[in-house]
User: Which sequence fits this backbone?
């Protein structure tokens, strides 16, 4: 992403996720669906989301078909709005080394089975890749609205324009989703394929080391502030990480569809794992502060009364009965995780000619100033 000083406040930044052709995908999806429906559907409106995630590829489309009623002479006319979720093509400089789409399908199914957390209705799964050349699954589109990442919701839009009371309601209901997720009983049994060998927090951090190695080090990009952050974690490791739960992984309001201000669907489970509750809670807090800090850099008010650390922690403790611990450690870890993601995304933007190589290697991390303050113990949360 171009440096903040090179952009206008609230400017949408061009970020290529996939170079797939929508018309080609429409034909492929129509042929594939015909095999599942037993009839040729009419596919229309195939498009990439105008605003969407920066990792997996989502394809929106509408489908209409006629289903013959078994044992009857009549027909049923069916239609729906769907989302196909797939991995980006290798040439698009993927953000992550692997994309387990069948695993995501199974995870969403299990979350629906073991909780009342709202998730999109799953329709079809294609673990073998099929006509799109990569594994994918199809789920219903969910009506509603999402706080935007690009341009960030702190600069304008429905959430920015809402009242403090409406934002407070959204905040409480969203924190309640985290507490509900972490309250799933026997998660090691229900989501056994996510459980690592040995200490879960250690395994999580080591997974981030491998990600940094793959995404940056292997290509000759050593980022000093990321190296410093890993060293800081070792020096401040929690004495007791606490109980392990199912971790959403990308826990943030930008991955929730809202019906007015009420969560209607929880999305994007590709970073899911297993570990202490604070992994999700710190990511949830930090991702807002990431955007709020950008707003304040531009001397824009942003939404300073929203998702404050003390309020989120207090609400989580109220809903869950669990008092978050070692949050300075986990918030710094969240900033480190995001640093690796953002550095990888910046590399992809440079690849597509949407950004330029920074003068200083640490500026591959967009939130470098905030992370430096966290490492120095001078970052002010509330």
Assistant:
């Amino acid at each position: 992403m171009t440096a903040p000083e090179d952009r206008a406040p609230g400017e949408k930044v061009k970020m290529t996720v996939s170079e797939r052709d929508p018309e080609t995908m429409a034909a492929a999806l129509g042929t594939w669906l015909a095999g599942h429906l037993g009839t040729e559907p009419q596919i229309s409106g195939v498009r990439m989301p105008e605003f969407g995630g920066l990792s997996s590829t989502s394809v929106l489309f509408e489908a209409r078909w006629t289903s013959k009623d078994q044992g009857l002479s009549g027909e049923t006319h069916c239609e729906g709005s769907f989302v196909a979720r797939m991995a980006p093509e290798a040439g698009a400089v993927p953000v992550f080394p692997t994309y387990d789409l069948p695993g995501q399908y199974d995870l969403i199914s299990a979350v629906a089975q073991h909780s009342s957390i709202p998730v999109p209705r799953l329709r079809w799964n294609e673990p073998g890749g099929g006509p799109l050349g990569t594994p994918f699954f199809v789920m219903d589109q969910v009506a509603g609205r999402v706080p935007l990442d690009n341009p960030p919701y702190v600069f304008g839009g429905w959430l920015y324009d809402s009242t403090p009371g409406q934002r407070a309601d959204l905040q409480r209901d969203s924190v309640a989703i985290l507490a509900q997720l972490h309250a799933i009983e026997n998660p090691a049994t229900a989501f056994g394929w996510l459980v690592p060998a040995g200490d879960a927090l250690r395994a999580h951090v080591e997974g981030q080391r491998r990600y940094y190695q793959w995404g940056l080090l292997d290509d000759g990009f050593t980022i000093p502030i990321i190296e410093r952050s890993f060293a800081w974690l070792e020096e401040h490791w929690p004495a007791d990480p606490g109980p392990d739960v199912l971790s959403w992984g990308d826990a943030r309001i930008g991955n929730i569809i809202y019906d007015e201000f009420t969560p209607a669907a929880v999305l994007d489970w590709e970073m899911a794992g297993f570990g202490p509750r604070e992994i999700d809670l710190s990511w949830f807090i930090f991702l807002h502060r990431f955007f709020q800090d950008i707003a304040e850099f531009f001397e824009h008010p942003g939404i300073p009364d929203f998702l404050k650390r003390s309020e989120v922690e207090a609400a989580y403790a109220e809903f869950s009965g669990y008092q978050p611990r070692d949050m300075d450690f986990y918030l710094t870890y969240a900033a480190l995780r995001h640093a690796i993601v953002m550095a990888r995304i910046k590399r992809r933007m440079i690849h597509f000619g949407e950004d330029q190589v920074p003068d200083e290697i640490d500026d591959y991390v967009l939130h470098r100033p905030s992370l430096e303050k966290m490492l120095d113990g001078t970052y002010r949360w509330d």
In short: The chain has a mean pLDDT of 91. The chain has two domains: 4-140, 153-376.
